[in-house]
Design a protein that fits this description.
binds heme C; 9 helices; two-stranded antiparallel ribbon; 2 strands; 176 residues; mainly alpha
Protein backbone atom coordinates (compact mmCIF):
# COMPACT_ATOMS: atom_id res chain seq x y z
CA UNK A 1 0.00 0.00 0.00
CA UNK A 2 2.73 2.42 1.03
CA UNK A 3 4.51 1.81 -2.26
CA UNK A 4 1.42 2.84 -4.17
CA UNK A 5 0.73 5.97 -2.17
CA UNK A 6 2.57 8.44 -4.48
CA UNK A 7 0.65 7.07 -7.46
CA UNK A 8 -2.59 7.45 -5.59
CA UNK A 9 -1.79 11.09 -4.80
CA UNK A 10 -0.93 11.80 -8.43
CA UNK A 11 -4.16 10.15 -9.56
CA UNK A 12 -6.23 12.27 -7.18
CA UNK A 13 -4.53 15.47 -8.39
CA UNK A 14 -5.12 14.54 -12.03
CA UNK A 15 -8.77 13.71 -11.49
CA UNK A 16 -9.26 16.98 -9.65
CA UNK A 17 -7.54 18.98 -12.41
CA UNK A 18 -9.62 17.25 -15.05
CA UNK A 19 -12.81 17.94 -13.14
CA UNK A 20 -11.87 21.60 -12.82
CA UNK A 21 -11.02 22.03 -16.47
CA UNK A 22 -14.10 20.27 -17.72
CA UNK A 23 -16.93 21.18 -15.43
CA UNK A 24 -16.21 24.46 -13.83
CA UNK A 25 -16.92 27.76 -15.51
CA UNK A 26 -13.45 29.25 -15.42
CA UNK A 27 -14.07 31.98 -17.94
CA UNK A 28 -12.63 35.18 -16.60
CA UNK A 29 -13.56 38.69 -17.53
CA UNK A 30 -10.56 40.25 -19.25
CA UNK A 31 -8.99 42.51 -16.67
CA UNK A 32 -8.32 45.17 -19.23
CA UNK A 33 -11.91 45.96 -20.16
CA UNK A 34 -12.51 49.39 -18.82
CA UNK A 35 -14.20 49.54 -15.47
CA UNK A 36 -17.13 51.74 -16.42
CA UNK A 37 -18.10 49.51 -19.30
CA UNK A 38 -17.87 46.38 -17.14
CA UNK A 39 -20.16 47.93 -14.57
CA UNK A 40 -22.58 49.13 -17.20
CA UNK A 41 -22.85 45.68 -18.71
CA UNK A 42 -23.03 43.85 -15.40
CA UNK A 43 -25.92 46.02 -14.26
CA UNK A 44 -27.99 44.22 -16.90
CA UNK A 45 -28.07 40.56 -16.13
CA UNK A 46 -30.31 39.34 -18.97
CA UNK A 47 -28.69 37.46 -21.83
CA UNK A 48 -30.80 39.42 -24.29
CA UNK A 49 -29.12 42.64 -23.19
CA UNK A 50 -25.63 41.21 -23.79
CA UNK A 51 -26.74 40.01 -27.21
CA UNK A 52 -28.13 43.40 -28.04
CA UNK A 53 -24.87 45.04 -26.97
CA UNK A 54 -22.93 42.54 -29.04
CA UNK A 55 -24.84 43.36 -32.20
CA UNK A 56 -24.45 47.06 -31.40
CA UNK A 57 -20.67 46.65 -31.44
CA UNK A 58 -20.82 45.65 -35.08
CA UNK A 59 -22.39 48.90 -36.22
CA UNK A 60 -20.31 51.70 -37.70
CA UNK A 61 -22.11 54.11 -35.39
CA UNK A 62 -20.78 52.24 -32.35
CA UNK A 63 -17.22 52.20 -33.68
CA UNK A 64 -17.48 55.92 -34.39
CA UNK A 65 -18.47 56.59 -30.79
CA UNK A 66 -15.66 54.40 -29.53
CA UNK A 67 -13.14 56.42 -31.57
CA UNK A 68 -14.60 59.73 -30.35
CA UNK A 69 -14.43 58.44 -26.79
CA UNK A 70 -10.75 57.54 -27.19
CA UNK A 71 -9.97 60.95 -28.70
CA UNK A 72 -11.73 62.78 -25.87
CA UNK A 73 -10.78 60.61 -22.91
CA UNK A 74 -7.70 58.69 -24.01
CA UNK A 75 -7.06 54.97 -23.72
CA UNK A 76 -4.96 52.84 -21.43
CA UNK A 77 -5.82 49.21 -21.95
CA UNK A 78 -3.89 47.91 -24.92
CA UNK A 79 -0.25 47.76 -23.79
CA UNK A 80 1.57 49.10 -26.82
CA UNK A 81 5.24 50.07 -26.86
CA UNK A 82 4.02 53.63 -27.32
CA UNK A 83 2.41 53.52 -23.86
CA UNK A 84 -0.98 55.01 -23.20
CA UNK A 85 -2.87 57.62 -25.18
CA UNK A 86 -3.96 60.76 -23.40
CA UNK A 87 -7.30 62.36 -24.16
CA UNK A 88 -7.58 65.71 -25.90
CA UNK A 89 -5.31 65.42 -28.95
CA UNK A 90 -8.16 67.13 -30.78
CA UNK A 91 -11.00 69.41 -29.72
CA UNK A 92 -14.41 67.91 -29.04
CA UNK A 93 -15.76 69.47 -32.27
CA UNK A 94 -12.96 68.02 -34.36
CA UNK A 95 -13.21 64.60 -32.70
CA UNK A 96 -16.27 63.46 -34.64
CA UNK A 97 -14.86 64.65 -38.00
CA UNK A 98 -11.62 62.83 -37.28
CA UNK A 99 -13.54 59.72 -36.24
CA UNK A 100 -15.22 59.67 -39.66
CA UNK A 101 -11.85 59.99 -41.32
CA UNK A 102 -10.43 57.15 -39.20
CA UNK A 103 -13.39 54.91 -40.12
CA UNK A 104 -12.46 55.22 -43.79
CA UNK A 105 -9.03 53.80 -43.03
CA UNK A 106 -10.82 50.47 -42.56
CA UNK A 107 -13.31 51.04 -45.39
CA UNK A 108 -16.20 52.10 -43.19
CA UNK A 109 -18.15 55.29 -43.68
CA UNK A 110 -20.05 57.79 -41.56
CA UNK A 111 -23.58 58.62 -42.67
CA UNK A 112 -22.45 61.97 -43.97
CA UNK A 113 -19.01 62.38 -45.55
CA UNK A 114 -16.36 64.02 -43.36
CA UNK A 115 -15.40 67.61 -44.22
CA UNK A 116 -12.21 68.07 -46.19
CA UNK A 117 -10.27 69.43 -43.25
CA UNK A 118 -10.68 66.13 -41.33
CA UNK A 119 -7.74 64.64 -43.20
CA UNK A 120 -5.62 67.60 -42.17
CA UNK A 121 -6.76 67.27 -38.55
CA UNK A 122 -5.82 63.61 -38.63
CA UNK A 123 -2.42 64.39 -40.10
CA UNK A 124 -1.56 66.99 -37.55
CA UNK A 125 -3.09 65.39 -34.43
CA UNK A 126 -2.90 61.66 -34.90
CA UNK A 127 -0.50 60.67 -37.66
CA UNK A 128 2.55 61.41 -35.49
CA UNK A 129 1.81 58.16 -33.65
CA UNK A 130 -0.65 56.18 -35.76
CA UNK A 131 1.01 57.08 -39.06
CA UNK A 132 -0.47 58.77 -42.15
CA UNK A 133 -1.76 55.37 -43.26
CA UNK A 134 -3.13 54.63 -39.77
CA UNK A 135 -1.08 51.47 -39.47
CA UNK A 136 0.64 52.49 -36.24
CA UNK A 137 4.29 52.85 -37.28
CA UNK A 138 5.13 49.18 -37.44
CA UNK A 139 3.35 48.04 -34.30
CA UNK A 140 4.50 50.80 -31.94
CA UNK A 141 0.94 52.16 -31.87
CA UNK A 142 -2.42 50.53 -32.61
CA UNK A 143 -3.29 49.96 -36.27
CA UNK A 144 -6.37 52.08 -36.96
CA UNK A 145 -6.90 50.52 -40.39
CA UNK A 146 -7.70 47.12 -38.88
CA UNK A 147 -11.09 45.67 -39.78
CA UNK A 148 -11.87 45.53 -36.06
CA UNK A 149 -10.24 47.86 -33.55
CA UNK A 150 -8.71 46.18 -30.53
CA UNK A 151 -10.91 48.00 -28.05
CA UNK A 152 -13.98 46.70 -29.88
CA UNK A 153 -12.53 43.21 -29.94
CA UNK A 154 -11.97 43.28 -26.17
CA UNK A 155 -15.54 44.39 -25.54
CA UNK A 156 -16.80 41.67 -27.85
CA UNK A 157 -14.86 38.95 -26.02
CA UNK A 158 -16.14 40.29 -22.73
CA UNK A 159 -19.77 40.22 -23.87
CA UNK A 160 -19.39 36.71 -25.24
CA UNK A 161 -18.08 35.61 -21.85
CA UNK A 162 -21.03 37.25 -20.14
CA UNK A 163 -23.46 35.54 -22.53
CA UNK A 164 -21.84 32.18 -21.89
CA UNK A 165 -22.04 32.74 -18.15
CA UNK A 166 -25.64 33.87 -18.12
CA UNK A 167 -26.87 31.05 -20.34
CA UNK A 168 -25.16 28.58 -18.01
CA UNK A 169 -26.82 30.21 -15.03
CA UNK A 170 -30.26 30.06 -16.58
CA UNK A 171 -29.76 26.34 -17.26
CA UNK A 172 -29.20 25.80 -13.57
CA UNK A 173 -32.28 27.78 -12.71
CA UNK A 174 -34.62 25.78 -14.95
CA UNK A 175 -37.35 24.09 -12.91
CA UNK A 176 -37.12 20.30 -12.78
C1 LIG B 1 1.31 60.37 -28.67
C2 LIG B 1 0.88 59.30 -29.52
C3 LIG B 1 -0.57 59.26 -29.96
C4 LIG B 1 -1.30 60.25 -30.60
C5 LIG B 1 -0.85 61.64 -30.99
C6 LIG B 1 -2.61 59.67 -30.83
N1 LIG B 1 -2.67 58.39 -30.36
FE1 LIG B 1 -4.23 57.13 -30.50
N2 LIG B 1 -3.27 55.76 -29.38
C7 LIG B 1 -1.97 55.88 -28.93
C8 LIG B 1 -1.66 54.76 -28.08
C9 LIG B 1 -0.34 54.50 -27.39
C10 LIG B 1 -2.81 53.96 -28.04
C11 LIG B 1 -3.02 52.67 -27.24
C12 LIG B 1 -3.49 53.08 -25.85
C13 LIG B 1 -3.88 51.93 -24.98
O1 LIG B 1 -3.01 51.22 -24.49
O2 LIG B 1 -5.08 51.72 -24.77
C14 LIG B 1 -3.79 54.62 -28.89
C15 LIG B 1 -5.08 54.11 -29.12
C16 LIG B 1 -5.95 54.65 -30.04
C17 LIG B 1 -7.20 54.05 -30.44
C18 LIG B 1 -7.75 52.69 -30.00
C19 LIG B 1 -7.23 51.65 -30.98
C20 LIG B 1 -7.87 50.29 -30.86
O3 LIG B 1 -7.41 49.39 -31.61
O4 LIG B 1 -8.80 50.09 -30.08
C21 LIG B 1 -7.78 54.90 -31.33
C22 LIG B 1 -9.12 54.71 -32.04
C23 LIG B 1 -6.90 56.03 -31.47
N3 LIG B 1 -5.80 55.84 -30.68
C24 LIG B 1 -7.16 57.11 -32.29
C25 LIG B 1 -6.38 58.26 -32.29
C26 LIG B 1 -6.76 59.48 -32.99
C27 LIG B 1 -8.00 59.63 -33.85
C28 LIG B 1 -5.79 60.40 -32.73
C29 LIG B 1 -5.76 61.85 -33.14
C30 LIG B 1 -6.84 62.69 -32.65
C31 LIG B 1 -4.79 59.75 -31.88
N4 LIG B 1 -5.20 58.46 -31.65
C32 LIG B 1 -3.63 60.35 -31.46
C33 LIG B 1 -1.09 56.92 -29.22
C34 LIG B 1 -1.44 58.11 -29.80
Amino acid sequence: MQKNLPYLVILIVLVYAFYNAKFRNNAKIPAKVNQEYTEHVKAHKETSHFEEELSNLKTTEYVKHYIIDVINHGSDQLEFKGGEMEGGFASKEDASKIACYVLELSNKKCKSPYPKDAAMFYSSNCAGCHGEDGKGLGGTYPDLSKEKLLGIEIKEEFLKTMIRKSTKKSHHKKPK
